[in-house]
Amino acid sequence: MSQPVPEPAPRPQLSTGLNLAVNYGPLLLFFVANKFGDLFIATGVFMAAMVVAVGVSWWKIRHVPPMLLLTFAIVLVFGGLTLWLQDETFIKLKPTLIYGIFAALLFFGLATGRPTLKLVMDGALPGIDAAGWTKLTRNWALFFVAMMVANEVARRMLTTDQWVSFKVWGVTLAFFVFALAQAPLMTRHGLNLGDEPKP
Length: 199
Prior knowledge:
Elements: H1 16-36, H2 39-61, H3 66-85, H4 89-111, H5 116-121, H6 130-157, H7 160-181, H8 183-188
């Protein structure tokens, strides 16, 4: 008889503090650099900070989360265009593109019966059942569509400094509030952070 195939070991995760630093440190530096310089200086700082964030993630866990990797690539491309052409439009379009890609990937996962969110977050949210992953993926897909629209409105109606504040503080707050709002759904569908993940 064939031996059962052992399950792969869970991928190592960044500590909570380091995860926050990797994901939100570049944004904070972007805000500070814009405050004391301008958007072009802030864009250069943002690009450098993203390089450091990706490097830290690889150094600590030998892995770069897909969302961070996609953000990194788009920041480099659109940040580079911003600096090369000296046009603020490109860095302001970056969030719209990122949110649009995330929404499209999540909706594609739903359409094909494989909730994309589960593929990238399963290790961090153990125990959630299939229905829970489907609902959570749907909710985040709709949220990313809303954030895409919000950025398009903001970049057209706000000054550059106001847009930077919206991007750093408004968007960050929206993400935290929305994530917390998903807690009851995750709990109803089996989230169990106190025990080992379900087989």
